[in-house]
Write a structure and sequence with these properties.
Membrane topology: Multi-pass membrane protein
Mean pLDDT: 73
Largest sheet: 9 strands, mixed
Low-confidence stretches: 1-10, 203-208
Main location: membrane
Number of strands: 16
Structural class: alpha/beta
Helix content: 40-55%
Radius of gyration: 39 Å
Protein name: AGAP006407-PA
InterPro entries: Insect_Ionotropic_Sensory_Rcpt
Keywords: Cell membrane, Glycoprotein, Membrane, Receptor, Transmembrane, Transmembrane helix
Shape: elongated
Length: 443
């Protein structure tokens, strides 16, 4: 393993008692086998360049749009895997023939089978971007990407109104207890005042003298009660308005158990069945009870069900413009906080991919040098800037002021209608009064 990782370049395999010098065992990453050398072998032969030149070799690389790993931007391939392919081309000095294959939810299964066939027959040398490969499903070789990604669920947000709970949510149980106690005391004070006004009608008024008088203290108490009532009502209405703006829908699942108890379906293509089975029998059974296939998913809305993605891909999906509801002003999808598992990522390589081990060593050296980390950091900053520009609408337009114009116009119309009704009402009353007045006839 140390030889294959490049951490150990040679090792003494055995010694001979007949006077023969010890042999050296070395692993050739290009030829993919061990070589035995004697101690008189030249240094150039023992230690060739770490990355041999492949000048003149042509690499057929298939790229599919899978942001943020590989994507087309102004007819140029961008993304971390496209960046790795560019670094490999500059290091190995080979030619790259890029093949683009558009994959969408209507043709995903057919394109996956087509990719597998082209890799098996050698038409394609390598498939970018990276993926999690199940050997039980694909009979092609893989090159380790030396990266592990968190597998998460992208879940649609609930669109069911939560009006009943919103009516109770503004106050906690303690505050509601105080409010109820306050209302009870207020009602008792009103009842006490009612009995005070009626006590003079009792039959025992001569025996029992009722001289209840609060004076200024009663007026102060009344003002305090009304002030507290006003503050409570205003606070309640303010909280109700806040919850109607931000919490008007039912709470979304936050754990896998809550998600499995919900009625949200989950998209599981056939090629992901081995991955789902690897999550455990309980989780796999729950997924199979809720799954829908791509054929059925293509007939539904894009945000109808949950999907399984790696964390970088999921962060992009929830930020996509087509999953932003402009009417409600919120994103339609969110990432379930509880992750499914951690999976290793790999690149699919074809039958004619002749330098698999050298490519893996190159990937390892690139990751250990920190180039990929710096690229990912810069890419995240660009994505944050893109999201900021997406959610910023820019200049105020007349379309934004249309609700204000409608509200002002409706207010003017109502005021004008009230004015006309009052004018005509007064004139009608005067006219009716003149009709009812009888003329005075002198005798």
């Amino acid at each position: 393993m140390l030889l294959k990782r490049g951490l150990l370049n040679y090792c003494i395999i055995h010694t001979n008692t007949h006077g023969i010098e010890p042999s050296l065992l070395k692993y050739d990453t290009i030829a993919n086998h061990f070589q035995s050398h004697d101690l008189n072998t030249s240094i150039e032969l023992l230690f060739p360049p770490f990355l041999r030149t492949l000048e003149g070799h042509k690499l057929n690389a298939l790229l599919s749009d899978n942001y943020p790993y590989a994507y087309l931007l102004s007819s140029v391939w961008e993304g971390v895997d496209a960046y790795i392919l560019t670094l490999a081309r500059e290091s190995f000095h080979f030619e790259v023939q890029l093949i683009n294959m558009a994959i969408n939810r209507q043709n995903a299964l057919h394109r996956m089978d087509l990719i597998r066939q082209r890799l098996e027959n050698g038409t394609i040398d390598i498939h970018m971007p990276r993926a999690h490969v199940s050997r039980s499903y694909l009979n092609v070789d893989v090159a380790a990407a030396y990266e592990w990604e968190a597998l998460v669920l992208v879940v649609p947000k609930s669109d069911q109104l939560n009006l009943i709970n919103i009516m109770l949510q503004p106050f906690t149980i303690e505050v509601w207890t105080i409010v109820l106690a306050y209302l009870l005391v207020r009602q008792m004070i009103k009842l006490f005042s009612f009995f005070k006004r009626r006590c003079n009608r009792f039959t025992l008024k001569k025996t029992l003298t009722c001289r209840w008088s609060f004076g200024s203290f009663g007026s102060l108490t009344t003002v305090g009660v009304e002030l507290v009532s006003f503050l409570l009502i205003e606070a309640y209405l303010a909280k109700i308005t806040e919850f109607l703006l931000y919490c008007r829908f039912r709470s979304d699942p936050q754990t896998l158990d809550e998600f499995f108890r919900s009625t949200i379906p989950v998209l599981v293509p056939e090629y992901m069945d081995p991955l789902v089975e690897a999550l455990g029998p309980t989780v796999a059974a729950n997924f199979h009870a809720k799954l829908i296939r791509p054929d059925e998913y293509a007939k539904r809305a894009a945000s109808c069900c949950a999907r399984i993605h790696t964390l970088p891909r999921a962060e992009y999906v929830v930020r996509m413009g087509k999953y932003f509801d402009a009417t409600l002003g919120r994103k339609q999808l969110y990432i379930l906080p509880e992750q499914l598992t951690i999976i290793p990522m790999s690149y699919l390589v074809g039958r004619n991919f002749a330098f698999k081990n050298s490519f893996e060593l190159f990937l390892l050296s690139v990751h250990e040098s920190g180039l990929i980390g710096r690229y990912v950091t810069a890419h995240r900053k660009d994505m944050a800037m893109m999201e900021r520009n997406f959610f910023t609408k820019g200049w105020l337009t007349l379309a934004d002021l249309l609700p204000l114009f409608v509200l002002v116009g409706a207010g003017w119309c109502c005021s004008f209608a009230a004015f006309l009704s009052e004018v005509f009402g007064v004139r009608f009353n005067r006219y009716w009064a003149r009709k009812r007045v009888r003329p005075f006839v002198a005798e």
